[in-house]
TrEMBL record:
Protein name, entry field: F-box domain
NCBIfam families, sorted: F_box_assoc_1
Organism: Arabidopsis thaliana x Arabidopsis arenosa
Ranges of residues in domain F-box: 7-47
SMART domains to which the protein is assigned, alphabetical: FBOX
Length: 361
């Protein structure tokens, strides 16, 4: 009689990869070997590619959803890209305004700014974070990362800008409290950050001389609890341009760039990046949007890259409503069509997702 202990690791991984994310916790409780496998970081990072699907965090009706999207067969039609999409998980307890991702953990900002919640869809674990006063402020911005020298100790960064006043705080999970960081900056983070290998990267600009200096990268190092040096972007941009950050499975950084008065839309990907030393880039895509005047006339909300297929999916404003977003696909041949995500006008893409067994302290 064949038992689980007699199966090869490759076969166990194949079986385990076919179990839905939302059922992983129940499966782990039935078999010690599966439980050990589920804690292997190298294995959990391969769950998505094993099924040829991309996992996304999306918001619909102020609820955070973990979705699986299969982009294979994208060239079936010119004007409507066929996909398959299914829901893998949902955070039901509270209405969510924004979601940030780091190594399988999601930092969710509630719609009423009353609390934060850190959620791991893979393990089902979550942890609520209270503000120091009654509520967080609508001007508050957040990031999530971890200390690489302390067993991936998770941390949350809050920062607040008001005129010339700047405040940075770190949430300590062990003491369940916020503490102010002694950080002085002469530049401003004005766009949404993305997590890469435990740190968060932001688009920044000087507080003064914005147009002359242009925008650049700043990385918050959660281990040192300090910002790293100024890192260059592969182009010159200013506040009116579209500059959006994304990641490729938290292994590479990607940036979308379109000048406010230009026709070309570019996507660049890092070939090397170090938070405290340097960054190098390669051009991934360049599309002449003059050929598609009805697309991408305003800053997009977010985008994701499928590197092997040489395509990108961009969430752009819907010209019919001017409030909702629609996903479009672009590739080497230019605009390839609208992506059919079923009622996509009701969804908002927040970020891609990579499963992880990281525990919330």
């Amino acid at each position: 009689m064949t038992t689980m202990s007699n199966l090869s690791r490759d076969l166990v991984e194949e079986i385990h990869s076919r179990v839905p994310i939302t059922s992983q916790r129940a499966v782990r409780s039935t078999c010690k070997r599966w439980n050990v496998l589920s804690k292997d970081q190298n294995y959990t990072k391969d769950l998505g590619p094993a099924s040829k699907e991309i996992m996304l965090i999306m918001i619909r009706g102020c609820r955070a959803h973990l979705m699986s999207v299969n982009l294979h067969g994208v060239h079936n039609h010119r004007y409507l890209v066929d996909t398959s999409i299914k829901e893998l998980g949902k955070l039901n307890q509270v209405e969510i305004l924004e979601v940030l991702h780091c190594d399988g953990l999601l930092l969710c900002v509630t719609k009423d700014y009353s609390r934060l919640v850190v959620w791991n869809p893979y393990s089902g674990q979550n942890r609520w974070i209270q503000p120091k006063s009654n509520n967080f402020h609508t001007l508050d911005r957040f990031a999530i990362g971890y200390d690489i020298n302390n067993n991936h100790k998770v941390k949350v960064l809050r920062f607040y800008y008001w005129s010339d006043y700047v405040e940075y705080e770190i949430f300590d999970f062990k003491s369940n409290s916020w503490r102010v960081l002694d950080v002085t900056t002469d530049w401003k983070l004005h766009r949404r950050g993305v997590s890469l290998k435990g740190n968060t990267y932001f688009i920044a600009h000087e507080r003064f001389k914005v147009d002359q200096q242009g925008e650049f990268l700043r990385c918050f190092d959660f281990t040192r609890e300090r910002f790293g040096p100024r890192l260059p972007l592969p182009f010159h941009s200013c506040l009116d341009d579209s500059v959006i950050l994304s990641t490729l499975r938290e292994e590479k950084l990607a940036v979308l760039f379109k000048k406010c008065d230009g026709c070309d839309m570019e996507i660049w990907i890092t070939t090397r990046i170090d938070a405290n030393t340097t960054v190098s880039w390669r051009n991934f895509l360049k599309v002449d949007m003059q050929l598609y005047p009805e697309r991408f006339r305003s800053p997009c909300r977010s985008f994701l890259v499928e590197e092997k297929k040489k395509v990108a999916v961009i969430f752009d404003i819907d010209r019919k409503t001017w409030t909702n977003y629609k996903p479009y696909m672009v590739g080497e041949d230019g605009y390839q069509g609208e992506v059919d995500l079923r009622d996509s006008e009701l969804w908002m893409l927040m970020c891609s997702y990579v499963p992880s067994s990281v525990k919330i302290q």
